[in-house]
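FIELD: query
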Amino acid sequence: MSRFSVKGFLIGFLAGGTVGAIVALLTTPKSGKELRGDIKQKSEEVLKDAERIFNDAKAKTKDVLHTGKEKIETEAGRIKSSVEAGIDAYNEAKKS
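FIELD: result
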């Protein structure tokens, strides 16, 4: 998942969750104090969910970067070995 689709998902999740919670709370008959308490509780839940999603995405990104770094290091080592072998072969051919 690209950086932009994770960001878009997170923004959509937050906006949708917030709007849905507010609409649900506003359409139920409650006192102002109860309604404010419910809105606060739902907002905290949405923020906790968003934080969890963000942390999961962050952890997955770190894993992908670590794996990519390992692959690059492996390939760099192979290329270096190939170049060194080519130089050695050239020097041996030059001596002959």
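FIELD: remark
Helices lie at 3-26, 32-95.
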